[in-house]
Specification:
outer membrane lipoprotein receptor (LolB), chain A, alpha+beta, 26 strands, Cytochrome Bc1 Complex, Chain A, domain 1, 3 domains, six-stranded mixed beta sheet, 14-stranded antiparallel beta sheet, about 35% helix, about 700 residues
Length: about 700
């Protein structure tokens, strides 16, 4: 009986409590918890080398990360040598060649990477001594082999070439130059000229000047005790001699008293890469850093940010719109970006600015403020599960002199922020009335719409102002006139028609591939075509043949017959001097303007082949020769642009042929023609796949 009464009494209390709970009222969020920051040990050797150790025995692995805490380098007319120097560290030491390094790293299942101011090595903890020894050898005894230097320099030049056709690369370069200026290390741009100026001595001098133990940290994470980590590092780095590292004075960054628009023109673009931003003075650990983190989350922090919801979900202008900021000891920046359809470029800019000002002038709703805080709390908390995060936080505390409890109290500081804090911080760091707006896209179609936001100027890949991207075509001139001039420049109609067969042998270099390929291309009138690419040690890797009736292509994975649209795509390659046959092929030509191509005036002809893609072709005003063509198409990753530049024309049998061809797009390809043979009476039997 007592048990029944007791149960009824408990039920009555529970029911009463439930009745008093108003479910229509959102419960108050719990106060932010104080984060229990993971423990780390800090040591300093006699030579000034600092060691941070985060012990974690969950897995039998350990990593060592060396960071040289140097100031940014002003590279001047040799921009790029610091990056090459960092890559060279991995290419061999005075004790080991690159091949020996690779072999030893692979043997113990480790990883080893280098950069201009860092070396990272990791692997199983049972090989901890071997890993630290490899780390030390790379960091302290680089050999700077000349042959590897030349390879890296060539790779950098190839990257420059492909970057010229990548709208995101163009945008990044234009933003950096516009925000920081040409004389600031953050605004310097690698160019062909600067890379060609670099010598091996420049790389050695950089290393000798800035790599010193007294401005270096080594962070150790994993299954190793702090004392053992210190002992290992002292064993391999203890004899590293300290030195005085020079300080640097930096040029002031540009100051904008009004919004300015800066454009890189790309006639082949079907969308505009937009970025709006300004520099900010926000040092790591500043009290406003937490506030700016919240501001950015509300504005453009992923798919829950206002920019994404407005510009993508509501307006449908883009696949995504985001914002970001960075803290920096010299100068930081705020920016917001999206790639939008050409025709809505100005509308997108208006929406960006509207959201900036809305954040500055309208209090954020309580639920939106809390949602942003919750997101940050969740990502912050989950990040602490990784010992690498603990190590990174510890390194920040030591490098930037942050309070020891900076990260432990981070969420409390975040939780205390109000809607008023958000508005004040947005006003302080987002300069909505004097922004730098950069746009990479079709200048002729966006310039008039962007002029409403501020004065417009145009730039090239190297950040140099160019003036208007296009000039009017002389009255009465047509696309046919340009093609006729091209025919004469090649050698004249009679000389071109006299070419009955053609064989071109070339060396082909593909970015990211260490081996050079050899290409043999043959054509024979009226419509025979053969192309074979081979690589030393591998044989034929690709082959395409058209015998006048059927086309077959194949490689190491087998062969297949081409049909329909695939054969149509071969037309220009099969046809002799295809540009002279455009009208016969039914293509529509539009002489759009005169443009600058790498500083050279060129006629722009838009070629419509009827397949939905417009090809932009450029013919030199001075020589009449074709110097470039561009086309954009939709791919799995969105819109991509392919470009082909032709130069170094040479005369063979009265006809001019380009001996240098550069193809850029998703992959950079360089074709250096070795030999052109004309009218050697190639037999028809040569155009067989077998």
């Amino acid at each position: 009986m007592k048990r029944i009464i007791s149960s009824l009494f408990t039920l009555l209390i529970s029911t009463a409590a439930f009745a008093q709970l108003d479910r229509s009222v959102r419960p108050e969020p719990a106060p932010a918890k104080e984060i229990k920051f993971g423990e780390y040990k800090m040591y300093e050797l006699d030579n000034g080398l600092k060691i941070i150790v985060v012990e974690n025995d969950k897995l039998p692995r350990v990593s060592f990360s060396l960071v040289v805490d140097r100031n940014p380098i002003v590279e001047g007319d040799k921009a790029g040598y610091v990056s090459i120097a960092g890559s060279l560290l991995r290419q061999g030491t005075t004790n080991r060649s690159k091949d020996q390094l690779d072999e030893e790293v692979d043997f113990i299942g480790a990883r080893l990477f280098t950069g201009s101011a860092n070396v990272f090595a990791s692997g199983l903890s049972k090989y901890e001594d071997e890993i630290v020894e490899l780390l030390a050898d790379v960091a302290l005894n680089p050999s700077f082999p000349i042959e590897e230097f030349e390879k890296l320099k060539k790779q950098s030049l190839s990257g420059i070439e492909s970057g010229k056709e990548d709208p995101n690369t163009l945008s990044s370069r234009l933003v950096n130059r516009s925000l920081y200026g040409a004389d600031h290390p953050y605004g310097e741009l690698e160019t062909e000229a600067s890379l060609n100026n670099i010598t091996l001595e420049d790389c050695k001098n950089y290393y000798d000047t800035y790599w010193a133990p007294n401005n270096t940290y080594i962070t150790v994470v994993g299954d190793i005790s702090p004392r053992k980590a210190k002992r290992l590092i002292k064993k391999h780095f203890g004899d590293w001699q300290r030195k005085e590292v020079p300080s640097t004075e930096y040029a002031a960054v540009p100051s904008y008293d009004k919004t300015e628009v800066k454009i890189i023109n790309r006639n082949a673009s079907v969308q505009t890469v937009l970025e709006l931003g300004n520099t900010i003075d926000l040092k790591p650990g500043h009290e406003d850093a937490v506030k700016m983190r919240l501001v950015n989350q509300i504005l453009g922090g992923g798919s829950i940010g206002r920019l994404f919801k407005n510009i993508r979900e509501d307006k449908g202008y883009t696949y995504g719109a985001y914002s970001s900021y960075d803290t920096d000891r010299l100068v930081g920046s705020f920016s917001a970006s999206a790639s939008v359809r050409t025709e809505v470029t100005d509308s997108a800019v208006m929406e960006f600015i509207k959201e900036f000002k809305r954040l500055q002038n309208e209090p954020v709703a309580a639920e939106d403020l809390q949602a942003a805080k919750n997101y940050i709390i969740g990502t912050f908390g989950s990040s602490l599960e990784s010992p690498q995060t603990i190590a990174r936080f510890a390194l920040n505390i030591e490098r930037y002199g942050l309070p020891k409890d900076y990260y432990e109290t981070y969420l409390k500081k975040l939780d205390a922020l109000t809607a008023e804090d958000v508005m004040a911080t947005a006003k302080k760091y987002i300069k909505a009335d004097n922004l730098v707006i950069t746009a990479v896209g079709k200048g002729s179609e966006i310039i008039s719409d962007l002029e409403k936001f501020g004065p417009v100027s145009f730039y090239d890949f190297n950040g140099e102002e160019t003036g208007p991207p296009s000039l009017p075509v002389p009255d009465g001139m047509t696309a046919s006139d340009v093609i006729n001039k091209y025919v004469e420049a090649l050698g004249g109609k009679e000389a071109l028609e006299a070419v009955k067969d053609l064989k071109i042998t070339s060396n082909v270099s593909i970015a990211g591939m260490p081996m050079q390929a050899t290409s043999v291309e043959m054509r024979k009138r009226p419509d025979l075509y053969f192309n074979e690419m081979s690589v030393g040690g591998m044989g034929v890797v690709q082959k395409t043949v058209y015998d006048g009736k059927k086309a077959i292509t194949g490689g190491m994975q087998g062969k297949q017959e081409l049909e329909g649209e695939q054969i149509e795509a071969l037309k220009d390659r099969i046809t002799f001097f295809a540009e002279t046959q455009y009208e016969a092929l039914g293509y529509k030509l539009n002489l759009a303007s005169i443009n600058l191509v790498d500083g050279e005036k060129a006629y722009l002809i838009e070629v419509d082949k009827g397949d939905g893609n417009i090809i932009s072709e450029y013919y030199s005003v001075e020589t009449g020769l074709k110097i470039k063509e561009e086309t954009s198409m939709e791919g799995p990753q969105g819109t991509m642009t392919m470009a082909q530049s032709t130069s170094d024309y040479r005369e063979v049998n009265g006809v001019m042929f380009p001996y240098s061809i550069k193809i850029s797009g998703p992959q950079s390809v360089s074709i250096d023609v070795q030999e052109v043979l004309v009218n050697t009476k190639i037999k028809k039997s040569a155009f067989s796949y077998e």
